[in-house]
Write a structure and sequence with these properties.
alpha/beta, five-stranded mixed sheet, single chain, Nucleotidyltransferase, domain 5, globular, binds 2-acetamido-2-deoxy-6-O-phosphono-alpha-D-mannopyranose, 322 residues, binds zinc ion
Length: 322
Amino acid sequence: MYRIGVDLGGTNIAAGLVDDNYAIVYKKSVPTDAATRTSEEITAAIADLCRDICKDTGVDIRALDAIGIASPGIVNAEKGTVEYANNLSFRRFPLCDLLRQMTGVTRVYTENDANAAAMGEAVVGAAKGTRNSVMITLGTGVGGGIVLNGKVYTGFNGAAGELGHMVIEKDGVPCTCGRRGCFEQYGSASGLIRMTKEKMAECAAKGRDTRLGEFLGKSGEVNGRTAFEAMRAGDAAAKEVVDRYLSYLAAGIGNLINIFQPEVFSIGGGISNEGDNLLLPLVPLVRKESHGDGFVEPPKIVIAKLRNDAGIIGAAYLGSVS
Ligand code: BMX
Ligand code: ZN
């Protein structure tokens, strides 16, 4: 039996044909074109992608057990709607109903992207075998997913688990959500990029030498790797950026550990590609921020396992529990 899991992002729509063991047997992606497409057009693109995947693999679309979609924003899984996703201009959008009509597949489910990723990690990834886990994704934003007793915790209205929007710096940097000082503004790749640029400007103003400018991306832009790479090359200013970033990450993760004490706390998203370079300095900082450290067994803090596939696998899993 096959399901299709769809990871709907602001830039790309990635989808995979997933088997009973939650392995992706075939994967394909298309651009989202979020800026120029309406919600209906994006849904039609998802339907086309599902049809393409079935055609390429010789699977009859009507024989699919389910389609699951991981979407950014506030998702109401019960209603099958995306209530609000600013980067996709979805507003109270009946995504599942429309996709049912467009594909003829009756079992269509949706969940927040990071919630789905957390579920994917819990089923076959870094938190496999546990009942209680928390995941954050360090990408454009900070996504969050809480798995309690084997189920994603969504709150009574579907809007829970927005872990990126807890304030860790009162009156800090304005966030797209309307608050100030959200974890997302400090823990995301975008936050790290902002801190890197600030440090470069500070060095330029003070006439201080830094090698940060030598580690830009292909397009000549600062990216999430710039500070880490310059630090590894021995640059002191870059180390200050990474240390500052890690201290914010530790504060945010420490808050979450104090609330949830999950068996596994996993970290995904672009920045998690740093692997041990991120984890080894981060874990002791988090321990210092964790209540009762030294007296209780600490949660395992790990890099997420499924990489970019977590959303697809978690979305496909939605169909088997609903
Ligand atoms: C934002 C929020 C979350 C999402 C997170 C990660 C929207 C549209 N998105 O905090 O729902 O999980 O970003 O998103 O409100 P990413 O773009 O970093 O993957
Ligand atoms: Zn916010």
